[in-house]
Amino acid sequence: MTIQMIIDRNNVSKVSDSLQYFTTLVTFVWKEIYFVKYKKTFLEIEDVLTASIFYGYSSHHFKLLKDKIGSGHAGGTTFRVLTVAAVGFWGLPPFLDPQKYKTLPIPGWFPYNATEYYYPTFAFQILAVANTAYTNSTLDILSWVLMSIASGQLEMLKETLKSMNYEEADLKTAEEQLQKCVRHHLEIVNLVSKIEKVFSKGIFLQIFASVIVICFTGFLMMLVPVASMKFTHTFTYLACMMCQVAMYCWYGHDVMTTSNTIGDSLYMSNWYESDVKFRKSVFIFLEKTKKPVTLTAGGFVTLSLTTLTTILRSSYSYFAVLRHMFNDV
């Protein structure tokens, strides 16, 4: 594929076509390398999730957690459906489009006559794409579900702080309740930091690659006829890539905004009914929660909806430049 891009370096359309799978493959390998590298940290995430501080709450609390996890599963299912559709449409053009007869799904240079061994080469490419897509989407969905768990735990913490009754409880009981909330908050921060350590570097390259892929995929959609299988496949692939980067930003933004309102939940309780000594402890905890829990990509880019708009804006800017260059040729 790399050799083919060098050969077709003067043909923007063919280079754009090759870059679709090449960029996705490089991103997948990068994410897998770092996932294996931080395998021990991932096992530590499992240990954190079994901590007793995350359990022993009411059914109402666990409903909040279940709803958050459900949203993670919904996003994962949507992305998986788009992934299956993209892989399926990838292999259909040679059979449904007469102009693409006996063309391979992935353009590339081969040290043999690919036309003579067309069907074995075609089958190998489709299996490679399907395997890459399945494993890559699994890593993505895993990170989204873990983010939704962290967000759900933050919702549980907020509900606990909101429902605390300082008037009826004695000072010792109130202190124990607050200490439990502080430990809960610290464990959530610890969980998020480990999630970031495992997935952060992979997400960073994914964001960078998404800018390129969205740009070149949009450019390809401009070149192919709308009523064609190639356009359908390209559109599905674009939707898949946009969903992928959007989910990262969405769940990262959810964690950040949920943690940012912990202090508001505490203010909604009757903390003012407690004595002055206890209020000092409350204020210290409030100062701690003023800093929102955030997830970053590579330690540089905060996962948020603002980042998503920046990605889309950058993709469109590069697309406009590419279209201008193509029209001038």
TrEMBL record:
InterPro entries: 7tm6_olfct_rcpt (IPR004117). The chain crosses the membrane at residues 203-228, 234-251. One of its GO terms (biological process) is signal transduction. One of its GO terms (cellular component) is plasma membrane. GO terms for molecular function: odorant binding; olfactory receptor activity. The keyword Transmembrane helix applies. Its main location: membrane. The keyword Cell membrane applies. PANTHER family: ODORANT RECEPTOR, ODORANT RECEPTOR 19A-RELATED. This is Odorant receptor. It comes from Zophobas morio.
